[in-house]
Design goal:
InterPro entries: FAD-dep_OxRdtase_2_FAD-bd, FAD-oxidoreductase_2, FAD/NAD-bd_sf
Cofactor: FAD
Strand content: 5-15%
Helix content: 40-55%
Number of helices: 6
Strand order of the largest sheet: 3-5-4
Number of strands: 5
Low-confidence stretches: none
Largest sheet: 3 strands, antiparallel
Radius of gyration: 17 Å
Protein name: Flavocytochrome c
Pfam family, one: FAD_binding_2
Distance between the termini: 12 Å
Keywords: FAD, Flavoprotein, Oxidoreductase
Number of domains: 2
């Protein structure tokens, strides 16, 4: 067997692991993906709500008034239970990049146009597929993209 001199080891094949692996693979890297369960997907496949994002094309198309600032404020309040809480730098980054995350998923043929307003939100910003649970749809869809890289030996 050919040994790789450099590869990224991704532990866990849920949503985070699948996203990390796909990002490395698309950049031309090699990945060793490790999962303790018999099947890929982890707990992410059980998630039902969706992905939260603000100022997305779906919100604009559906006339939903939302902003990165409002998303960050909602998140800070949820964290600290204080209406005057300021978003942490990490929260600010998450909220600022959230629309790009939806775009990235949709570039991988994962259509998530259905919006709902879940707990702690001041606007409809939870993006989900037209049918089925969001977790399984998104996670298994990303892992299908990762598996395409197995065929050329870029991923184990």
């Amino acid at each position: 067997k050919k040994k790789w001199s450099k590869a990224v080891i991704v532990v866990g094949a849920g949503l985070s692991g699948g996203s990390a692996a796909l990002t490395v693979l698309e950049a031309g890297g090699k990945v060793i993906l490790i999962e303790k369960e018999k099947r890929f997907g982890g707990n992410s496949v059980r998630a039902s709500s969706g992905i939260n994002a603000a100022h997305t094309k779906h919100q604009k198309e559906q006339g939903i008034n939302d902003s990165v600032e409002l998303f960050a404020k909602d998140t800070a309040y949820s964290m600290f239970k204080d209406v005057n809480a300021k978003p942490t730098p990490l929260v600010q980054t998450l909220c600022e990049n959230s629309a790009e995350a939806v775009d990235w998923l949709e570039a991988h043929e994962l259509n998530i146009p259905v919006l709902s307003q879940n707990g702690g939100h001041s606007a409809s910003r939870t993006h989900r597929p037209i049918s089925g649970a969001a977790g399984g749809y998104i996670t298994l869809g990303l892992l299908r993209s990762v598996r395409k890289y197995e065929e050329n030996g870029q991923c184990k």
